[in-house]
């Protein structure tokens, strides 16, 4: 297991180096002077020069990259061009809403989709199977913002049960936080539960067609025991994979949902930074998303050892 962990961590090194290089080059990919683009059309030459010096854009590209790496080694993501605040501080202040939304969505998606996918596979070709797959198709087809506005209209405006928009931090109480996250969580769950349910169903169908399942049935083992003891554990790897990647995608891809429900998360911060051409903030957010994605993938790889003994024994 320790050897497997070391191999996974070692494999992330070139990935992280590539990510660092790509994030660094964001300033230089577009045409024109990045300092002039950040300063705006009405900026004076002095203001452009100040931005260029502040971001070390007056240095050769290799020197800029070394400065960037040195700053990252000190956990310094730079300073916002417009607010003058440290980028790391801005991201940390916006992290709680996005993280809580990702956690609640992932938890609700797993609780709903995994049993639904297993039940649909067990009832293959029956009304239950068609119902689960129909809901999955609807989840993929209907845009999240449409679901979000429908939920707002029904549960917030007409019934008045839940707040329309905004986010209440955990400091205000867990109940207030959950109430403010209920509608965006349900809207996102409509999409991600559809993905998890389809993967669960397809994997369960493959497992139920294996020889050891047929052998267990031939020995007279009850279907419930076959499902819970023999089959369910063997769908763990693909299901954990899709849940892990979905969680990482939620952290980096809830821009639309945060905009619909006016949640001050990292997604909203990214949109605001792009519109304002605040490249240090954009770089910092993208780097954080990339690191989180790599770490989630490592954790997902490590979780495979819980479901596949060959990984613990070093056979894979």
From TrEMBL:
Record has Disulfide bond as a keyword: no
Entry's localization field: Cell membrane
Stored PANTHER family: DIPEPTIDE TRANSPORT SYSTEM PERMEASE PROTEIN DPPB-RELATED, PEPTIDE ABC TRANSPORTER PERMEASE PROTEIN
An example Gene Ontology biological process: transmembrane transport
UniProt keywords, alphabetically: Cell membrane, Membrane, Transmembrane, Transmembrane helix, Transport
One Pfam assignment: BPD_transp_1
Any single GO CC term annotated in Swiss-Prot or TrEMBL for this entry: plasma membrane
UniProt cross-references to Gene3D superfamilies, sorted A to Z: MetI-like
Principal localisation: membrane
Source organism per UniProt: Bosea psychrotolerans
Domain ABC transmembrane type-1 span(s) in chain numbering: 95-300
Membrane topology: Multi-pass membrane protein
Official protein name in the record: Peptide/nickel transport system permease protein
Segments traversing the membrane: 99-119, 131-157, 177-197, 235-261, 281-307
Family designation: Belongs to the binding-protein-dependent transport system permease family.
């Amino acid at each position: 297991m320790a050897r497997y962990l070391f191999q996974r961590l070692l494999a992330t090194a070139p990935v992280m180096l590539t990510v660092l290089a790509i994030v660094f080059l964001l300033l230089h990919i577009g045409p024109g002077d990045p300092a002039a683009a950040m300063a705006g059309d009405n900026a004076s030459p002095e203001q452009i020069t100040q931005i260029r010096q502040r971001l070390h854009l007056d240095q050769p590209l290799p020197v800029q990259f070394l400065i960037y790496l040195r700053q990252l080694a000190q956990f310094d993501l730079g300073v916002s061009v417009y607010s003058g605040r440290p980028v790391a501080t801005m991201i940390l202040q916006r992290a709680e809403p996005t993280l809580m939304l990702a956690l609640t969505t992932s938890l609700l998606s797993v609780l709903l989709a995994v049993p639904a996918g297993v039940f649909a596979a067990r009832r293959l070709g029956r009304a239950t199977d068609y119902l689960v797959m129909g809901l999955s198709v609807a989840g993929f087809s209907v845009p999240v913002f449409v679901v979000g506005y429908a939920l707002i209209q029904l549960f917030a405006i007409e019934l008045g049960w839940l707040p329309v928009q905004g986010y209440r931090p955990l400091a205000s109480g867990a109940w207030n936080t959950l109430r403010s996250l209920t509608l965006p969580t349900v809207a996102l769950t409509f999409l991600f539960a559809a993905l998890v349910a389809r993967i669960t169903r397809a994997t369960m169908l493959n497992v139920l067609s294996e020889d050891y399942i047929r052998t267990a049935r031939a020995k007279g083992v009850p279907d419930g025991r076959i499902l819970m003891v023999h089959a369910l554990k063997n769908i763990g790897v693909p299901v954990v994979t899709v849940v892990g990647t979905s969680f990482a995608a939620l952290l980096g891809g809830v821009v639309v949902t945060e905009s619909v429900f006016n949640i001050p998360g990292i997604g909203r911060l990214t949109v605001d930074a792009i519109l304002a051409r605040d490249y240090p903030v954009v770089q910092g957010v993208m780097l954080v998303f990339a690191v989180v994605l790599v770490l989630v993938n490592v954790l997902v790889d490590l979780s495979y050892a819980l479901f596949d003994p060959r990984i613990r024994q070093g056979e894979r």
